[in-house]
């Protein structure tokens, strides 16, 4: 199972694709956005992801109870319109940010939230699309995104099993099989005990897709653990300094934290390797320190081998310990000095 985004092949034995999410952490300051993207590159990200919407393309300006945020989130007390007015990335920035990111060697793509944003991103020629958790039920939008024929990464934060099946079928219906699913817990920040990372290998097995994690926890433990469970894409929010504030600051990583996470991810994937029972030359050499049968007392020719004069000890130059019972009560063929490794030539 593989997909290709830009020059990166993702899945199977390829390296984990690490996405830095800009989200609202530019605080609607273009220079801050640019500095943040530069810091993402320095921290080791493979890609920067943004979000393409305006308050009016994602909701309406209403303060009736349906549009008030009161679910125990960081954003309670605002209306949806107010939140998105604060968080959106101005569209006129986006082609410029893409050029800056690509000049740095980063892959740049976005989450669209309506057809106009898809069309806008198509004009920018982004190499992939991300579907945010809360859009997974918008099947007409997902069909439209998938119809562009580019890889589509889908967060499953609010999805039931049947929702995931429906969205995959929607992509395939329009001829797009380049699908990745990200385990996601749609809480901001997400508690570790609600992450259920063991879902990641099950997603891969059930839906036969590339899988990964979109992580909104505090810290990096969940991201690193996900790699050990088979995540081939990890996504984490990135901010230059949490003290800057903003809607996503609390669950975003600062540059040094992100860099440490990248190092840990690379170390874990390197350590995972492949299923392998072959011994390297170094380990074969180390077997010399394993146990084997030695004479632990001076033994005269004709003496019996006993549990007193033969023991299984380190190092490993004598007979395998499995032969101890076969040797006991047999006789020594010649004099054997204490500290001699046993071999069959010493046994009558």
UniProtKB/TrEMBL annotation:
Keyword Membrane: no
Domain AFP-like: 292-348
EC annotation from Swiss-Prot or TrEMBL: 2.5.1.97
Gene Ontology terms for molecular function: N-acylneuraminate-9-phosphate synthase activity
Biological processes annotated in GO: carbohydrate biosynthetic process
Entry-linked Pfam families: NeuB, SAF
SMART domains, sorted: SAF
Transferase among keywords: yes
Enzyme class, spelled out: transferase
InterPro entries: AFP_Neu5c_C_sf, Aldolase_TIM, PseI-like, PseI/NeuA/B-like_N, Pseudaminic_synth_PseI, SAF, SAF_AFP_Neu5Ac, SAF_PseI/NeuA/NeuB
Record's keyword terms, sorted: Transferase
Descriptive protein name: Pseudaminic acid synthase
This protein's encoding gene: pseI
